Amino acid sequence: MRLVIIGAGFAGMYAALSAARLRDIQGVSPEQLEIALVSPEPTLVVRPRLYESKPETLTAPLLGVLKAIDVVYVQGSAETIDTQSRVVGIVAAEGVKKSLSYDRLVVATGSRLARPDIPGLAEHGFSVDQLDDAIALDRHLHGLADRPALNGRDTVVVAGGGFTGIEAATELPTRLRAIFGKGVKPRVIIVDRNSAIAPAMGERPRPVIEDALHKRGVETRLGVGVASLDKSGVTLTSGEHIETETVIWAAGIRAAPLTAQVPAERDNSGRLLVDRDLRVPSVPGVFATGDAARAACDDDGNFALMSCQHATRMGAFAGHNAAAELLGVPTKRYHQEKYVTCLDLGEADAVFTRGWEREVTMVGDTAKKTKQEINTVWIYPPKAERAAALASADPERVGDVSGFF
């Protein structure tokens, strides 16, 4: 029997850990149930941190962990999914193609930044979506120091006033001052079509966010969008033209394109609709998790968000349940009733909320220290030691934030 997991992000990593944990509990050997993880590199990209400087350091190796728990690593990019034949087509190094059959499949392919067909965006826009994108932006920012202080060199426009846009924008003044040196005052502007900043977070944390933007000197243009980009800068739908050499696109994400090859119903973000076991109901043998899946996380009408917090726990349930079906043991119903957010607001500032109502419980330095602990400890892989790695993947404990309630 073979369980194949596509993707080595947070959901894919925990799917592998959790499946291996159940296999170990059931006393089944790796020869009896092979667990294979497919990814271009055996590396976890710490995507929630890509708005920070030195993005090339924001990865964590997975090969040691996978070896410790007897998960087979298959290097390559999954290109096709044939759900009738139960085969995944993979493009390996130097374009070599191969196929991998499965008895159960976990689609943990994550998400990608939505890039609309705005004139000039592809040529002149940057992002912090993927590791290569963040590295390209970082190099660009450092290269600005060698250019004349003209034509908006010191101005950065961030398109998108959601979680990623705010974290990038509030981090930029510190990053740019370190690059330009004393005497230069960077200008950072957030542009968003909504009438208020951070629309998805609601009204409760908004005053804290607005105050932080004011303290960081971050301007906003709300109720307008980006109409076009060119070498001179960005033109807004209001007609305003802002001279800048740096536009960062941070407006919306969609499930990775590979999910479209699974013949099943999807939501407006391209996520596969799954049941409470994270199974794709209409496609036998296929589970979806993380940003690839739209899953109910409680009985109150709340659905998992495209976030690291939900992806880790969803991954653990998906891996467990896919292995459980093969081993003939009961599955576990995915649930994640507790929900918190911790939004970085630059320098010694952050805001921590709990519950779907986003009740503010920590701000300032206290919240910042919590954010740093989340970013540098909690979301990293477990140590490459078998017992500890397997113990970390209990679906009922992964992503447990009850300590904040």
From TrEMBL:
Source organism superkingdom: Bacteria
Ranges for domain FAD/NAD(P)-binding: 2-315
Keywords per UniProt: FAD, Flavoprotein, NAD, Oxidoreductase
Pfam family, one: Pyr_redox_2
InterPro entries linked: FAD/NAD-bd_sf, FAD/NAD-binding_dom, NDH-2
Recorded family membership: Belongs to the NADH dehydrogenase family.
Record's protein name: NADH dehydrogenase
